[in-house]
């Protein structure tokens, strides 16, 4: 796993590949829109039976992305030293997982949302045991999903819904009672692309028509 990300060329966020909602919706990208820097941790847990990815489900009362599944993360604070510092700070604040348990092994492509967030996904390797004490105001649940689930052909879906008179497409990974979609699913697609290229696998989309999910600030 570490070797895979060691082979990725480190490119500054303002010069590298910009992924985002516009991957499936070219008209959604507005280069003139004000940008809000943010960072998330993509936590890879090294379990005995294979890697898992740690995710959170946000509480229903939050202003942004209420009730959605997401990586630990948030906006860059002026006191943060860099994007990695932002991601690890948010991990500690939201999940209660100290940064000393995290070995940063690389970054995914910068992800831009329709609402103007410019997200740097920082990939962190975590070996158990580690403490988890979620912030009950922000986090309703902390759970893990096997990495192989995201790499399995057919589990990656492409949905759409009507938004402002247009079809908006988005990636989704339904897993048990969780619906992983939007920016989080988009970053997971990028992770899978990196790992699948290394393994020589193809992860084709499974198109699904769905108008049930409400876009809440994506």
Calculate the mean pLDDT score and round it: 83
Proportion of helical residues = 10-25%
Tell me the distance between the termini: 30 Å
Could you say what the CATH architecture of the domain at 2-150 is? Answer: Alpha-Beta Complex
Given as residue ranges, the uncertain stretches (5+ residues, pLDDT < 50) are 9-15, 211-218
How large, in whole angstroms, is the Cα Rg? 16 Å
User: What is the CATH class designation of the domain at 2-150?
Assistant: Alpha Beta
Binned strand content: 35-45%
Structural class determined from secondary elements: alpha+beta
Shape: globular
Question: How would you summarize what this structure contains?
Answer:
Keywords: Hydrolase, Magnesium, Manganese, Metal-binding. Its cofactor is Mg(2+); Mn(2+). This protein is an alpha+beta fold and 218 residues long.
Describe the protein's architecture and organization.
- Its cofactor is Mg(2+); Mn(2+).
- Pfam families: NUDIX.
- The relative contact order is 0.21.
- This protein is 19% helix and 36% strand.
- The chain has four helices and 13 strands.
- It starts with a helix and ends in an 11-residue tail after the last strand.
- It has a domain at 2-150: Nucleoside Triphosphate Pyrophosphohydrolase (Alpha-Beta Complex), CATH 3.90.79.10.
- It is globular and about 50 Å long.
- Mean pLDDT is 83; it is low at 9-15 and 211-218.
């Amino acid at each position: 796993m570490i070797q895979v990300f060691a082979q990725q060329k480190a490119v500054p966020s303002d010069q590298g590949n910009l992924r985002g909602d516009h991957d499936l919706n070219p008209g959604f990208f507005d280069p003139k829109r004000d940008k809000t820097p943010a960072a998330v941790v993509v936590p890879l847990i090294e379990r005995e039976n294979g890697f898992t990815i740690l995710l959170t489900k946000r509480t229903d009362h939050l202003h942004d992305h209420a009730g959605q599944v997401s990586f630990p993360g948030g906006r860059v604070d002026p006191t943060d030293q860099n994007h990695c510092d932002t991601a690890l700070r948010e991990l500690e604040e939201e999940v209660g997982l100290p940064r000393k348990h995290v070995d940063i092994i690389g970054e995914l492509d910068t992800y831009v949302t329709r609402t103007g967030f410019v997200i740097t996904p920082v990939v962190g390797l975590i070996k158990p045991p580690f403490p988890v004490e979620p912030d009950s105001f922000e986090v309703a649940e902390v759970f893990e999903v096997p990495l192989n689930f995201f790499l399995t052909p057919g589990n990656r879906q492409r949905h759409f819904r009507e938004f402002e008179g247009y079809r908006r497409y988005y990636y989704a990974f339904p897993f048990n009672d969780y619906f992983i979609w939007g920016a989080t699913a988009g970053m997971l697609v990028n992770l899978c692309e990196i790992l699948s290229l290394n393994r020589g696998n193809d992860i084709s989309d499974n198109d699904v028509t769905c108008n049930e999910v409400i876009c809440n600030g994506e």
